[in-house]
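The records we work with from here on pair a chain with its fold. Here is one such record, which you should read through line by line:
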Amino acid sequence: MKKIGKITIILFGMMAFYSCTNLNEIILDEYNATTVTDKQAADGILAPAYALLPSIYQHTNLFALTEISTDEAILPYRGGTDWGDNGIYLSLHRHQTTSTDPNVRNTWNLILQGISRSVTAINSLKVNKDPSANLYIAEARGMRAYYNLLMLDLFGIAFQKEDLGDVSTILRTDKAVDYIRAELLAIEPIVETTTGPGRITKGAVWGLLAKLHLNAAAYRDPYGATLSHTAADMDKVIEYTGKIISSGQYALSADYFAIFGNDNHTNKELIFAVDQRAELNGHNRMSYFSLANDQRPVPAYPAANGTDGPAITPDFYRSWVSAYGNVDPADADPRFYKKNVDPTVECVDGNSYNIDRGILRGQQYGLVYQSGAFVKCPDGKFKVGPLYNTRGKAPYPLVIHTETVNFTTAGSDYSTGYRVEKYEFSKKSSSGRNFGEADIVIIRLADAYLMRAEAKLRKSDAAGALVDVNAVRSARTKSAPALTSIDLNTLLRERGFEFYWENQRRTDLIRFGKYEDSWTEKNSTDKNMRLFPIPQTAIDGASNLTGYLKQNPGY
């Protein structure tokens, strides 16, 4: 293996990226290694550092931890049995999670693997002679910093490791914040601006630095009764978000739901995202997870449907109602709902058919499905009508999403709870779960504006904060009405309206001091629940290193 010795890594079976991401998988073995160029090898070495992002951002991993643990999402036992999973989603929502929770374990393992792959890429690229190697090392360091930021946010620790043969140094609180910040600052001058939202760019670095400083108080003192958001941290948030906003590279999307569409890879609002390609690495789980089981969005694939998963809580819905009073939120705010299905039109062309997006309420309509196929009209178009829940025996009840959803028998029926269809359902998904096309947002321009608004507000610049908030509200073609005043409670509500279902809510609630509040089916006030337990399997696996990996308080 002549070339292998030089590259020091064999890559096989790992997802890579193409198109705008422009990293290609190279399979190195004793038969073809001698023909691999340094550039091809560099591409293949870097790709695995990014490749786990789609898995981390699946519905039962990061989403479960960051959304079902909050007042935005609730997942009961549907019909008394479905999504039971030994009660893990009930426990997540109630803040009763244990160290044996499989979703916690899987998320931990994936993030840890991401750190390991990033370290592997850094080490291997150091001996690569292609001019791209220096940039790729910087990107790998950026991904290591990002995975560590996730680890710090969820579990309260970061892993400092420079070589795969070393034992990682575990960092907590100030030391973890300082380490991640130093890594991001080190690569800021090196990374590029034009490699797209699927890779670490200058914009991504600025966004991650802004998030780090915005949440630094919670990271430095995760169990503090009152978080101390320092002026120095807020100044840094303003600095880094200002760089994003003034760069001219990004633009707020005129169509809110286009940000989450199947062709969003080129949407200029995206700064950093999970790069998905349908046939390569894409999953459609964020689209199918909340959707009714009898909703079948793709005329080409009758088997592609929803799964009757999580709904929004009545508490979150009521925040919209209280904001707009006598005006229905769907009429007041373009972020709430986008109507695509007209129930008065009985026959539709399959090529132009799209289901409704946003928060779905009441009777649901869609393609009529019977005996394993869609019903056609006499002219060959697809018939549309009210949906029925066909899980049980006839006569089938209508699919009517209700505001009430909870863990009671009545409140956990298949149709209870308003649902969310934020990401567009993939036109290529044959099962509803696979072949996702939409990039999953990590950082976007609206977040830069609202982070800057929060930093200004915490520095008593309410006027400046209001300008930033209204810049986002007015950006859409159908704009939300401008706010006339702003305070922290209003800003938290605004972040909920803008970023619901985007893995932000748990971190926001902690930062705003609301994570111990009560909401539907959750009354815990235990501050220890701000961090998740370190999986018992991880502690057991490190048992040969005395005192190395200690469980978080309260577990």
